[in-house]
Design brief:
Elements lengths: L1 H32 L4 H13 L1 H8 L1 H19 L19 E9 L9 H9 L5 E10 L4 E5 L6 H8 L7 E6 L2 E2 L5 H6 L1 E4 L8 E2 H5 L8 H10 L3 H6 L7 E2 L8 H15 L3 E5 L7 H16 L3 E5 L11 E6 L2 E2 L1
Parallel strand pairs: 3-10, 3-11, 6-9, 9-10
Antiparallel strand pairs: 1-2, 1-4, 4-5, 7-8, 11-12
Helix pairs in contact: 1-2, 9-11
Length: about 325
Amino acid sequence: LKRRQAVSEAVADALILVANLVMLGRALQLVAAGTIDFAAAFVAVFTFVSSFGSVIAVSRLGASLQETLASGARVLDLLDEQPQCAEVADGQDVEFAGAAAEHVSFSYVGGVDAGGAGATEQVANDTAASLILDDVTCTFAPGTMTCIMGRSGSGKSTLLKLLMRFWDPAAGTITVSGVDARHINTASLRSHEAYMTQDTHLFCGTVRENLLVAHANATDAELLDACRSASLTTLIDRLPQGLDTPVAELGDSLSGGERQRIGLARIFLNDAPFILLDEPTSALDALNEASVMQAIDELKRRGKTIVLVSHRASTCAFADFSLSVEHGRLS
C-alpha cells in the first residue's frame, strides 16, 4: 500500500511540476509579446500554482482513505468479538471454598464446546496430539499452595485459564466451591480470583493507574503495601515522580522484571481468596525472587488459596503440593 501510494504521489507531483512550467513559460511568452503586462502574468501564474493544493489532496485521498477504512474495519472487528464463554448473570453467587478440575479435557482445535451433549463428541473428534489437557483431575483446597510444573506447552497455563473460565473444558468440569463454574455468575466467580499472566500487560499511563486496574478505590497506603510485598519499592523510589511516573505504551520504559513486579503488586492489591500465578518470578533475579516468594508465602498464611505455575524448583519450595503436567496428563 505504501509503495502504491508513493508511486501515485510521485506521478501527481510530476504532472503538477510540468503544468507549472508550461504555465510559467506561456506567461513569460505573453509578457515578451506585450499581450499582458508582468503584474497580470504574476497573478495568473500565482493563482494557477496555488490551485493545485486541492488537486494534491484529492490525488492522495485514495491511499489515505484505504488506511482509514482498514483501521475502521479492525476496530469494528474488535467490537464484534464475542467471548469464548458467555457471561453468566442468572446463575448463583458463591463464597470461595476451594476449586477443582474433574476429568477435564481441552483442546484449542475446532473451537470449544460449552459442555453438554456435544462435549464428548468434541473430544472424540480431536486427535490425541491436539489435546492440551487429557482427563485431568486435581483439587485446590482452601488455604493451600499448589505448584504446577512441566515443560512449555504441556498445558499448565491452559489449566489456569480454565479455572478463570476464559474457556470451558471440552469434557469434564471445573468447579469452584463445589459448583460447576458454568453455573456461577461471572461477576461472583471473578471476584474470588486473581490471575497474573506470564507477560504483564501495562497500559499507557502512570504506575499508579496501572496498579489501580486491580482495585480502583485503593488508598495510597494500600498501594505502597502492595508494592512493598512485590519488592517494587526500590523501583518506585528510583522513579522521578514515584507512583505518578508515566510508563510507555505496553510498559516499554520498564524492564521485564519490573513489569512482572507490577503484575504481582496488582495481585496483592486485589486481595482475592483464590490466586493464580503464571511464572511469577521468571524475570526476577534470585534476591527479588526470594523476597516475592516470602510475600506469596505470607498470603498463604493469611488463608489464600494459591496455584503457582513455575519451571523453577526454588519457586515451588514453599508449596504444599506439587503437580507435574506432561503431554496434557497430570501426576
